[in-house]
């Protein structure tokens, strides 16, 4: 069995094995500091500079890492929106809508038009819109990471079918949409252009302990597909709730699906203080 449970509240860290944990906790703190530095840089840069298109955040696709969607713009559309639907065989309805850059998310509702929608304020005058959500995935006013799920794609409001209506605005004015710094074309129908998302968020983590079993599903009775002999850098594709795993009096029922190991581990063994990992979509 793995021996390094995490996700204890801070008070619990002053436990009997605190000395044994110290080196790893320091490592985690260094990683955290680096992350905060990165976040600080990305948040501060647009705000300090005079806003301009060349200083936009590095927007990524508003749908999950690895998926391919097609998009179109219709002439009656508000502003410079593009509407996205999946073109990789997956279902558009029910798929996560994700933040194309970090910022502060607010919830809105306009039943006769945009339906349930999220606005993310990225600073520097930049905002992105995500319309027609089936439901919200973040609290009103939440800070969100790039790639973090903000809603569930749907067809609320004035919409004829599930899609993400997506916009980028500078000081309230709709801009031509740019992804990874490149302007997208504005085709009049779907199927002409496709976009594959590299909006993978901060999904690289390190595991704890030795002998951590990777299972075929988020259940303790699921077959073991491989075992992590020691702390391992992992790419977390998504997370979901499964069997609760208890260690040192703390219980976590969130599990991460590891891309390279092709299986699940309990988030107890992911070196991160939160039970549910930030910026990681739901499976
Ligand atoms: Zn639209």
Question: How would you sum up this structure in a few lines?
Answer:
By secondary structure, the chain is mainly beta. Helix content is 11%, strand content 36%. The protein is built from 1 helix and 20 strands.
Helical percentage? 10-25%
Number of helices: 1
Quote the average pLDDT: 82
Q: Compute the number of strand runs.
A: 20
Measured by DSSP, the beta-strand proportion falls in 35-45%
Stretches where pLDDT falls below 50 for ≥5 residues?
A: 1-52
Question: What would you note in describing this structure?
Answer:
Strands 1, 2, 4, 5, 6, 8, 10, 11 and 14 form a 9-stranded antiparallel β-sheet that branches. The protein is 11% helix and 36% strand. It is elongated, with a radius of gyration of 20 Å. The longest helix has 31 residues, at 18-48. It contains 1 helix and 20 strands. The chain folds into 2 domains: 1-11 and 203-283, SH3 type barrels; 54-196, Glucose Permease (Domain IIA), CATH 2.70.70. It has one helix at 18-48, and strands at 68-72, 82-86, 96-98, 103-110, 115-123, 126-133, 135-136, 142-144, 149-152, 164-170, 173-174, 178-179, 182-183, 194-196, 204-206, 212-215, 224-228, 233-247, 250-258, 263-266. The protein has 283 residues and is mainly β. Bound molecules: zinc ion.
